[in-house]
Amino acid sequence: MDAKIAWVHSRPVKALFAVAVLASCQSGAPAVPPGYAQDIGGLCDSVHLAGASDKQGQERQLLVAMWLGKNLATPQAHEFLVHIQPLDGPAKAKALQDEAHRVGLDACPLAAEWRDAGSDAHTE
Hints:
- By secondary structure, the protein is mainly α.
- The protein has helices spanning 2-8, 11-26, 36-44, 46-49, 57-71, 75-84, 89-102, 109-123.
- α7 packs antiparallel against α8.
């Protein structure tokens, strides 16, 4: 047993632990609350998950809103929705895309849809 304790207190193990602690402190990225990344993933895919891909206008918005209300689990996800609600088109799309990237997602279909809808409004 003393050999195991000595090993844990050895220089290489202490050095490895110190490097791990420093690396986690130096990342600079705020921690993502448990479940939040999954909620942002659900938000990004909400049109598909709500079965609203083939719907338009208010019917589509209602289905997505109902799905989000039932499926977003974290208070942070609800706060994020409140935060981006007043934004429009490209600004809302960028905020969602940035948040998706922050939590580790490569793509966000809803952000792309909002971005495309915003650019269509500017070309008409």
